[in-house]
Amino acid sequence: MHLSLTHRRGLSRVRCAVQRKALPVRVFVARHGETTWNLAGRYQGRRESALSALGMSQAFALSDAMVQARVERVVSSPLLRCTATATPVADRLNVQLETDDRLLEIAHGTWEGRLRDEIAANDPLRYRAWREDPAHVAFDGGERIGDVLARWRAFAAALQPSCTTLVVTHDAVVRVALVLAQGRALDAFWDAPVGNGSYAAFDVDGERWTLIALS
Question: Could you tell me the pTM of the whole model?
Answer without folding.
Answer: 0.92
